[in-house]
Design goal:
heterodimer, A: 105 residues, mainly beta, Immunoglobulin-like, four-stranded antiparallel β-sheet, three-stranded antiparallel β-sheet, B: 2 domains, six-stranded mixed β-sheet
């Protein structure tokens, strides 16, 4: 059995920009893949990812099935100060949810 | 038997349950980010052609030349070994970028992702997508109400849409 991976988030301040990198642990089944027995694996993929900085929503990502397994995202936020709280929440098509949080150091 | 004996009691219990579940959901704050549950544009994501997906996602808009977007896909020179995770990167100097969409022409559902940006977000945006077969990958940036479209071809050895 695979070890259940955790959602990861990193934020870094450089040149007055915050670089946020997010790695979510999710199988992202498209609904077209088959398991070893040749049965279709039902679709299970992240649909909605949101990012907040200090409680303010800054970014929304809507994903289709073509987002890679264990989705990775990297983006910049303008400005930023040490102590900023950056939070990412996701919801998949089956209603499963996850939260990843980090504090800018 | 007991069911038939008192149907009104049944419905009373049912009503009580659904009301309390609703109250629970509301109080747990699930409904607070109100767009979180409802607004996944399924029309756009289940569209089978690029045109349909774009129309559903962005509507009609003035299309401008995509030269102001720098769009990178795969490792140079635009070659992906494994279609299950193809890196993409979108950069642009355009002001007021509102939305970025990434589409893969030959995927069963072309729209891979759609990103809504606020003025707090700066590019580049990087992510990974799946590419089923050798295909054209399209990046669309909406800025100031205009669409900037650019595309790259990509070759994959192993298709990645399982």
């Amino acid at each position: 059995m695979a070890i259940k991976a955790r959602d990861r988030i990193r934020a870094k301040l450089k040149d007055e920009q915050t670089t946020v990198r997010v790695l979510l642990a999710h199988p992202m089944h498209t609904g077209r893949g088959e398991n070893e027995q040749g049965e279709l694996i039902p679709a299970e993929f992240i649909q909605d990812i949101r990012c907040w900085r200090n409680g303010k929503e800054v970014l929304t990502i809507k994903c289709g099935t073509a987002t890679a397994r264990n989705p990775y995202f990297s983006f910049q936020l303008t400005g930023g100060a040490s102590g900023d709280k950056i939070m990412v929440r996701w919801v998949d098509n089956l209603g499963a949810k996850g939260i990843a949080e980090t504090t800018l150091s | 038997m007991t069911n038939q004996a008192d149907p009104r009691r049944r419905s009373l219990i049912k009503g009580a349950i659904s009301a309390s579940t609703l109250a629970l959901v509301a109080s747990s704050g699930l409904l607070l980010p109100r767009r979180l549950l409802a607004h996944w544009p399924s029309d756009a994501f289940t569209a089978e052609t690029v045109e349909d997906a774009l129309l559903a996602l962005l509507g009609e808009a003035e299309v401008a030349d995509g030269k102001q977007i720098s769009f990178k896909i795969g490792a140079p020179p635009s070659y992906a070994v494994n279609g299950a995770s193809v890196p993409v990167e979108v950069r642009s100097d355009l002001p007021n970028v509102e939305r970025i969409a990434i589409l893969v022409d030959k995927n069963p559902n072309p729209l891979a992702m759609s990103v809504d940006l606020t003025p707090d977000v700066a590019l580049p945006f990087k992510s990974m997508i799946k590419v089923a077969e050798d295909s054209e990958v399209i990046a669309v940036v909406r800025a100031d109400g205009k669409l900037y479209i650019t595309s790259r071809d990509i070759a994959v050895d192993i298709g990645g849409c399982a």
